[in-house]
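Give me structure tokens for this 457-residue protein.
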Amino acid sequence: MNELKKTMVFGGVAIVLALLAFVTAPSRVTPDAFLDKDELFFPEFTDPNSAATLEVIEFDDETGAAVPFKVTFKGGKWTIPSHHDYPADGEERLAKTAAGVIGIKKNEFRSDNIADHEALGVIDPLDEAVTSLTGRGERVTIKGPNDQVLADFIMSDVIEGREKYRFVRIPGQKRVYAARVDIDLSTAFADWIESDLLLVNKDQVENVVIKDYSINERTGSLQDRDTILLSKNGSDWQADKMTSKQETDKTKMNDFLTGLDEIAIVGVRTKPEGLSQSLRRANGTGLSISQQAARSLQSKGYYFTRDGQLVSNEGEIQARTSQGVNYTLRFGEVVFGDGLAVSAGGEATDSDQSGSGENRYLFITTDFDGSGFKEPAKPANLEFESKADSLLTDADKQNKNLKREHDRWLAKIASGQQTSDELNARFAQWYYVISSKSFDKLNLKRSDLVKEKEDDT
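Here you go.
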């Protein structure tokens, strides 16, 4: 074989070997753990407004129990099932939360090992098969109108040193990711309800009566200590029984009205149904109630006097607005406990005097007082209604004006009565729990509100 043939043979062999090496060489493999990097956790969940239910399950390390919080749209209204189906102001807040959940991505793979779940803080708070009380995460579930699960995940606390990043795991799966979770996920009862309890602006309040009394719980007899009558005169307030050298304290009065406007609800309890029905029809006087309702009232600090008047062991306040709506606020017993025991309560927790006593029961009713709206003169007749304007006499024109003013008066009376009825129906079902801070702003004596005039000289 000459040199040329040898060279060609060796060259061909080299090419074949190179091809074999290429064909048989192992391919570069990307681990499965990194294939879904930066993918959305819930790609089919795209419309935040489709969210109809949010449930958050937290774990209480002290009690070793899961603590649920739920907001849902059912029967045409938003409610909080964990708090006796109290009405929620939840649509906008839930949509914002849902929008944040939609954007959660699998930013970084962290572990495929179940043994790491405790250290990463993603153990399902509902998992009773796991004995560990530590390492439990927060389980978040969002559902659509027909209970269709749109998102369901367990997340840890914020990762140390990484703002807004948490470890995230899908229930039933081993894999854990580090993900940016930018959502305001509040489970505070106060954050999901209408914050303006009375639906009144302090500038609308024109008259206030503060009744300071004590009640003999055994006999039901009432002992009046003082009744303060306060009325608005322009921008100033006047109190009864003031001397010429006294005046109301403007700062204290403003603080009182602000406290009335901004009463902070921290919890609710339901009233017995029979009592609720009666209160929808009345403002707390002349009620006929069952023994169960009476026991419920007494457990919260409310009693009936011998003449059938509903009173409370911490006095009451009446506030009348320019619309003629008269609010009666009755302050009851101290509420002990913390957390869910305060916000949702129950008969067992209400009788338990452990925990802080920083809150108090509030019982609200309303009625309409139209005495501030003087009835204008009525027209002498309605003959003008059947005449063309060009044929109206001076008397007809006068009657037409009188009819217009009287109709305005009737509309104002009807509006005030309707507002009062709607508010009374709203308040009828609930004992409210308010913060001690709110109570302290309203629990004032005459000496707090009336002071000696300052010497101008």
